TrEMBL record:
One Pfam family hit: NAP
Gene3D superfamilies, A to Z: 1.20.5.1500, Nucleosome assembly protein
Chain segments carrying region Disordered: 109-142
Location within or outside the cell: Nucleus
Listed Basic and acidic residues bias regions: 123-142
Biological processes, Gene Ontology terms: nucleosome assembly
Record protein name field: Nucleosome assembly protein 1-like 1
Chain's gene name: NAP1L1
Acidic residues: bias regions: 109-122
The species this protein was found in: Lates calcarifer (Barramundi)
GO cellular component: nucleus
Amino acid sequence: DKSDDGEEVEWWSSRQLTVQMMQNPQILAALQERLDGLNGSPSGYMESLPKVVKRRVNALKNLQVKCAHIEAKFYEEVHELERKYAALYQPLFDKRSDIVKAAYEPTDEECEWKADEEEELTDEMKEKAKLEEEKKDEEKEDPKGIPEFWLTVFKNVDLLSDMLQEHDEPILKHLQDIKVKFSDPGQPMSFTLEFHFEANDFFTNTVLTKTYKMRSEPDENDPFSFDGPEIMCCTGCTIDWTKGKNVTLKTIKKKQKHKGRGTVRTVTKTVPNDSFFNFFAPPEGKNDGDEDSEAVLAADFEIGHFIRERIVPRAVLYFTGEAIEDDDDDTEAVVLCVQEGEEEADEENDPDYDPKVRSPLPAHIHPPSKDLWCPEKDLTQLFSTLLAQDALSSSYWRPWVAAVIS
């Protein structure tokens, strides 16, 4: 059939054009720049408004800037409240630390806790369980405090366990407490994480610190981007390692061949090593243009904020795993709400919506994976995947790209 032949030629030409485009870095760079510009760009609606209406919209924007400055003051007062209530929490956290490191033995009354599974147990079953528990305790050595409390917390939290290396664990067994200290009244907004260690063979410090300095004021050049305090920089501390115990460095041996004589010699070199303790030697601040440094700093900020907001206040629940279950439940609920909201929006806004037809794509084109839809993904990778699925040779590729950049 001639029409089929024509469609096949058109399909092949489109495919060849796509391959050529992917192989041309200038075209890819220009297209990437164009797509980046489309992300979040205003529609043509504003340009179509009468001048007098645009003038009033500018007045609304000025009001919005004033709102941003009020919001900044709000967060400054929130910081003061956090500092005030931190003083009220601290005696409880100090007692927690004393129990963990065996400086205080809680009373029977303080140790009473009615677990959910115990609610339906009969008195006879409870007595039997108690006897078995006592028998197990007699067979074991009496541990002091709560061994490896903070190490267990770290290992239970994905964000922190990803930082841990096997050689870090023996050191973190000596971690006795983590404290949060807020800046004094009238001082620039900041907070410090203090990691308290018992005496150990790895370093002589008793406290390792990490300080985060923040700013709570809108950017003059982009006031609408203000969304609460922004961490501007962080400073770590010097760890006084015992000789041969520095886990942030490793020694490697490398063979070198002499160019003239042809002899081979072995050279010993010290290089950085992956370790949780690199957390105390972060980039000092934002370095414009250095994407790697900014990425490391952003990840560091996320970790510091998480330790301050979640780990320190709820440490026992991360030790038992209960807080992790709550976090998972919250995440699932958010995902479900987003999915339901998107489905409802599709149904309400699409006049041609048919509940029997769930996908606008041809049957042979599979929906993109979660990774593909991530806007941080490289454009070349996106086109490679779409090309492999014949998506670029059809009229369906535009919504896909739009979805990736939206």
